[in-house]
C-alpha cells in the first residue's frame, strides 16, 4: 500500500483543539500556567481522555500517570506505534510547548477515522507525566521511569519547593493508573514539538528532522553564611550567602560562554533565606542547568563550576554544597525513524533540515526503549518557555502532516518486514 501523498490533517480542527485546551490554565499574557499534577493538569487530562475516547480510543494509565490512548490496528498483537509528548507547562509556558505533540497525535487519530484508514499496528497517543521538571525535578521524569532511567520510588519521592511529594500529588489528582510504568512496549515513537530555538525560522525551513538531543545536567547549590544585622555588621565581618551566590551565578554564565557557542548555562531558580531586607542572608539555594551537544563538554563545565564554587566559598567565608540532581547524556535518534520523517517532509514538499534539539524532550528517554525520532516546526523568534510563544497554524499543520505520514510510513515498513518483504 503506497501512502497517498495527499493525506493531510484537518488544520482547523487541530488548531481549535490547541486553542480550546489553552484555556485550561490560561494566563493574562496569553500563555498557559499548568504545572504538573495540579488541578489544572487533572482538568486537561480529563479533557484529553474524553476526546480520545470520543475518537474511538481506549485510554489506559500507568502508575506514573502516563496516559496511552490506543487506536486498534489490523494486528493488535503488534506493539503500537506511539505519538507522544506532554500537556504540563512551565509557570510562564506558551500554548504550544508539548501541547502540539499530544494534540497532533489526537488529530492523526481523527484523520485516520475520517479517511477510514486501518493501520496494520495499533497507534497510541501518549501524554507523558512531568516532562517540564519545573515543579518536580528532574525534567522528563516519567518518560524516564518508563525507559528505566529512574526507579518509580525516586519519582514518587520528588518534592516541590513547598514540600509536596510527587507520589501524593499524583494520587491526589486521581491519575495513578494500575499498569506498571515501562511494561508497555512500542514498535516506534514519534514526537512533534516546536523547535524552541531560532534556527528553522532563520533558515526559512518549515520542518526540523530531529536527529538527537544535546546533553544536559542539573545541579542544586546550597550556600550557607550567617544571618546578621544589615546595619551594624562591618563588611569585613560578614558571611554573606547572597553575595557569594551572586558571584557563583556569574561564574556559571562565564563557564557556559567559555564553552560557547554550543554550550549554555542557566540559573533559573533562586531562594534566599530569611529573605528580609535588613538581614544579611544566611543561606541561598539556587539551581544550575548546563547543556552542550558533547557530553565531554558538559562534564568539563561541571568540573569548572565545582572549582569556581569552592574558590568563591573560601574567599567569601561561606559554605557551599553542590549536588548533581540530573544527568541526561546526549541522545542520537533511530536512523529508520529519522528517515521516515525525512521522506515524509520531502513527499509533502516542506522545506526541511536536520537539527539537534537544544531542549530536552520525552523522546530523549523513550529512544532508549523504542526506535524514536522527532519533528520540529518553527516558533517565532525561537521564543519558548515564555507566554508570548508563537507558531502559525500552517506550521503546526505541516508538522502534523509530516508526523502522520512518518507514522504511516513506519507502519507500512513494519508490515512489509512482517511479511518478509
Ligand atoms: O528543559 C527542557 O529542555 C524541557 O523544556 N523540559
Ligand atoms: Mn516540551
Ligand atoms: Mn518545555
What does this structure look like?
This protein has 421 residues and is an alpha+beta fold. The protein folds into two domains: 11-214 and 330-419, Aminopeptidase; 215-328, Alpha-Beta Plaits, CATH 3.30.70. It is 36% helix and 21% strand. The chain is built from twelve helices and 16 strands. α1 (11-21) packs across α3. The relative contact order is 0.18. The protein binds (2S)-amino(hydroxy)ethanoic acid (HGY) and manganese (II) ion (MN) (2 copies). One manganese (II) ion is lined by residues 90, 97, 132, 385.
Number of beta strands: 16
Instruction: Compute the separation of the termini in Å.
Output: 13 Å
> What is the name of the CATH superfamily of the largest domain?
Zn peptidases
Helix content: 25-40%
By secondary-structure content and strand pairing, the structural class works out as alpha+beta
How much of the polypeptide forms β-strand, as a percent range? 15-25%
Largest sheet: 9 strands, mixed
Give helix and strand order, one letter per element, not per position. Answer: HHEEEHEHHHEHEEEHEEEEHEEHEHEH
Low-pLDDT segments: none
Shape: elongated
CA-atom Rg in angstroms: 23 Å
Bound molecules: (2S)-amino(hydroxy)ethanoic acid, manganese (II) ion
How many helices does DSSP assign?
Answer: 12
Overall pLDDT: 97
Please name the CATH topology of the largest domain. Aminopeptidase
Amino acid at each position: 500500500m503506497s501512502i497517498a501523498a495527499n493525506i493531510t490533517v484537518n488544520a482547523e480542527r487541530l488548531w481549535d483543539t490547541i486553542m480550546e485546551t489553552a484555556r485550561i490554565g490560561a494566563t493574562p499574557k496569553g500563555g498557559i500556567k499548568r504545572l504538573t499534577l495540579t488541578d489544572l493538569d487533572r482538568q486537561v487530562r480529563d479533557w484529553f481522555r474524553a476526546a480520545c475516547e470520543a475518537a474511538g480510543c481506549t485510554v489506559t494509565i500507568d502508575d506514573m500517570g502516563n496516559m496511552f490512548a490506543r487506536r486498534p490496528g489490523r494486528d493488535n498483537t503488534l506493539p503500537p506505534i506511539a505519538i507522544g509528548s506532554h500537556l504540563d507547562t512551565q509557570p510562564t509556558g506558551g500554548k504550544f510547548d508539548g501541547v502540539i505533540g499530544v494534540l497532533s497525535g489526537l488529530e492523526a487519530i481523527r484523520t485516520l477515522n475520517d479517511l477510514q484508514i486501518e493501520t496494520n499496528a495499533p497507534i497510541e497517543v501518549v501524554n507523558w507525566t512531568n516532562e517540564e521538571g519545573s515543579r518536580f525535578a528532574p525534567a522528563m521524569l516519567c518518560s524516564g521511569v518508563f525507559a528505566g532511567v529512574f526507579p518509580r520510588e525516586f519519582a514518587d519521592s520528588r518534592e516541590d519547593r513547598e514540600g509536596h511529594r510527587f507520589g501524593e500529588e499524583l494520587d491526589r489528582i486521581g491519575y495513578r493508573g494500575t499498569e506498571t510504568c515501562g511494561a508497555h512496549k512500542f514498535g516506534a515513537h514519534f514526537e512533534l514539538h516546536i523547535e524552541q530555538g531560532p534556527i528553522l525560522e532563520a533558515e526559512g525551513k518549515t520542518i526540523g528532522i530531529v536527529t538527537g538531543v544535546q546533553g544536559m545536567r542539573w545541579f542544586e547549590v546550597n550556600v550557607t553564611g550567617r544571618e546578621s544585622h544589615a546595619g551594624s555588621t562591618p563588611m569585613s565581618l560578614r558571611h554573606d550567602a547572597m553575595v557569594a551566590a551572586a558571584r557563583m551565578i556569574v561564574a556559571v554564565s562565564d563557564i557556559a560562554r567559555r564553552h560557547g557557542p554550543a554550550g549554555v548555562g542557566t540559573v533559573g531558580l533562586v531562594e534566599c533565606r530569611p529573605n528580609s531586607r535588613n538581614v544579611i542572608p544566611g543561606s541561598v539555594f539556587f539551581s544550575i542547568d548546563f547543556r552542550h551537544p558533547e557530553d565531554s563538554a558538559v562534564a568539563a563545565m561541571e568540573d569548572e563550576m565545582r572549582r569556581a564554587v569552592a574558590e568563591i566559598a573560601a574567599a567569601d567565608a561561606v559554605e557551599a554544597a553542590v549536588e548533581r540532581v540530573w544527568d541526561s547524556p546526549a541522545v542520537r535518534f533511530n536512523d529508520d525513524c529519522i528517515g521516515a520523517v525525512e521522506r515524509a517532509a520531502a513527499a509533502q514538499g516542506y522545506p526541511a533540515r536536520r537539527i539537534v534539539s537544544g531542549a530536552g524532550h520525552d523522546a530523549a528517554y523513550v529512544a532508549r526503549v523504542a526506535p524514536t525520532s522527532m519533528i520540529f516546526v518553527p516558533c517565532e523568534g525561537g521564543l519558548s518557555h515564555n507566554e508570548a510563544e508563537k507558531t502559525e497554524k500552517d506550521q503546526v499543520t505541516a508538522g502534523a502532516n509530516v508526523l502522520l505520514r512518518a507514522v504511516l510510513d513506519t507502519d507500512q515498513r513494519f508490515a512489509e518486514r512482517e511479511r518478509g518483504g
